[in-house]
Amino acid sequence: MSGDAPIHLILVDGSGFIFRAFHALPPMTAPDGTPVNAVFGFTNMLARLLRDHVGTHLAVIFDAGRVTFRNGIYDQYKAHRPEPPEELRPQFALVRDATAAFGVPGIEEAGWEADDLIAAYARLVTDAGGRCTVVSSDKDLMQLIRPGVEMLDPIRQKPIGPKEVEAKFGVTPDKVIDVQALIGDSVDNVPGVPGIGPKTASALIAEYGSLDAILDGAPAMKPSKRRDSLIEHAERARLSRVLVTLREDAPCPLGLEDLICRDPDEVKLGEWLQSMGFRSLLHRMGMKESAAAVGVASSAPAPAAAVAAAPTPSPDRAPYGPYETVRTAGALETWVAEARTAGFCAIDTETDGLDPLRAGLVGISLAVAPGRACYIPLAHTAEPPPPQLLPDLLLEPAPQDDAPDPVGPQLETGLALAILGPLLADASVLKIFQNAKFDLLVLTRAGAPQPAPVDDTMLISYAQFAGRHGQGMDELSRLYLGHTPIPYDEVTGTGRNRVPFARVDVARATAYAAEDADVTLRLWLSLRPTLRIHHALALYEELERPLVAVLADMERAGIAIDVVELRRMSADFATRMAQMEAEIQALAGRSFNVGSPKQLGEILFDEMGLPGGKRMKSGAWGTDSSVLQDLADQGHDLPGRILAWRQLAKLKSTYADALVKQADPDTARVHTSFQMAITSTGRLSSNEPNLQNIPIRTEEGGRIRRAFVAAPGHVLLSADYSQIELRLLAHVADIPALREAFALGQDIHARTASEVFGIPIEGMDPLTRRRAKAINFGIIYGISAFGLGRQLGIPPGEARAYIDAYFARYPGIRAYMETVKQEAKDQGYVTTPFGRRCWVPGIADRSAVRRAYAERQAINAPLQGGAADIIKRAMVRLPHALASAGLDGRLLLQVHDELLFEVRAGQQDALSALVKQVMESAASLSVPLVVETGTGANWADAH
Prior knowledge:
With 943 residues, the protein is of the alpha/beta class. It contains 38 helices and 23 strands. It has a six-stranded mixed β-sheet with strand order 3-2-1-4-5-6. Helix 17 (436-446) links the parallel strand 11 (430-433) and strand 12. The radius of gyration is 30 Å and the shape is globular. Single-chain monomer with multiple functions.
């Protein structure tokens, strides 16, 4: 080609295409049995691209791994993405082989996403006066579209330009980032602003012009949930903007001269196509087969060895549907009889909300065998869905007099539950749920008896694969059944067109709801047998399954709050924030919006000239907490005050204001929801409200805890494991000095300081003890010399000397850490002392940064997971212990290593002794478990 020809660079989103091809094409295998459907699709696309869309330059861009710099900014980024299907994993390397066989450069860079590299190359070529075509349909890449940069959908072979972007997002490409920051992304776990969907986001952008303008203008908006959400979650939106912004400053490992299109080596390409069995492509490209041809790609099943490596297949090939709609008592009784005969059934509920303590029961589905399921509509309304959701053709409604009943007969809820009640309570019939706690709360609230016995497919999977992939039904179905269930959005619509489930056409509701029960049953048949294979049966049977009922009771109970005190606190926080704002503005030398990162950046870096500022893609200075903390550590007053103001603002919005709104108006009690299958270590988390993040050691955190109060005539009792993770470290690493210290009840941090620094415990300097404490807890989390130095305010070199001295005194801890890291590399997971597998993605990553992060996770997981196992053991034993003792007390909350009870006044001493005994005997370690208890009228006094 002429050297003067304008550059036209074609960039193929290789990582994005392989997933799309895998799900779009039927199973295929190479002659050696390797799955190759995605490879075939990719190869076909690349051949067509070279034939029909010839540019001057070409490259295929890949993701180098799952962990990137964004995980350092937000550790939950893409945290819940599942592991790729087993049939797809070998195809990643083969797609790279295909790229090389065509002679096309394949580019990837550790720590960066393929999208960032595409953004960087697009900028590089347009700055050189050329143009770029991105071969992808990924919405995240649409922010790049501008003069000189376009996209091409590789499946539909359709260009994607500004019109297509505006049709999707409601804004021009240059505003896509702001829209994405507002709406977030559930797939990538980008938080966004709750309640803000695409239409609302685009309307706000149209009105205000930018995300910063929206957030700055939110306080002046008309009072509404949307306004409150924008104010409360402003930092989430700013964080989301950072996460979704593609980095044009990403490295470009190859220069443009290395990407010039070249004809492939026909011999090399032909041999590779033959080795894969892609004869049709070979002939289409005008190549002849050689005697080395080894076979033909086939859609036949893979050989036994390949099947053995894949996830457990669906136990039955029965089709998914059609399913029956149950409208009469007689029909329901027939299904109940079938369930009794089978000895098990899967059950799922449909509701008109996501809060099981407030949602109404709309319908129930049952499954008694694969493909044999039904739906029992109970509260569907006669109001039809809007025209956009009518199936197939948009038909004009018939005249009212002639219109058939759009819902049809339904069983009255009380009658349906009366028929189902004996089945739910029948000890000889196993009831199977996916996320059983939700359904149990819904059913019992509607008047059904407590279902028992119960199995939970979510927890069956979680007991085996915590951290390996998410535990949602749709994800499990795709992974282990090879089936994609009907999406909820397809049934109810999205955005403004979404309708409550009660208004969904019953035929559609049956297809959706009965399929959920069918999938749940098939998952149970597939996953339940593997509990024993993965040595997770005891963990599931003794901890996870019995904990469902315990947590359901805790959620029903809730905890009382002092609404008056919270409102007083909110007003006080507002006053203090106003005072802090005045002081901040005085330090700045002028008035400005303290909550505006843009204005703050101008103050700090343009006007005050502080060092270390970095501009973001938008041109504004970055002012997140890490930037401000660095400046505060350097002795600058203003950044530290901003951090304090932000902390107070967060406490005000997240707790002082939000708790009042979340409380039951009749009882003034808040009912948090415990999440059982989110963390990789087995720890519980909670939301609505999240009680795990209340500051423990600050004055403001104490004030918030004081607003959690006991009911009249009762007191709160707190029981907290003392230094449980350090005790587990002493146990699993078998450290004699630490074991002795715990056995003697010594101050473990003073003992550590004495051992490491060679000084007596008596008369020890508090600063020395503090340093030993920081090392003790830091070691659990794999702290670096830089991190310890920053925490203690000392140079990294001095901190490294402390860590080295620690390991010299306790070589068994270093040996334990190395053993655990190797275990994670060999198996992909580590194990708690009680047998829980904690999967560690990224442990074998080629990136040293990502691998080091995974190694720190591996070190901590057995300790944090072991602590979770111990407190769960106590929780499942406590209800029976309380009942046997005849005490009028109940468990309300679990937060980290603490349990909180409400007990009738006068019984707190007896309850304290009982709880302490149960918790301290929950596990037998080589060191004693110690539980500290306290009581009070509120949580702060009890803690």
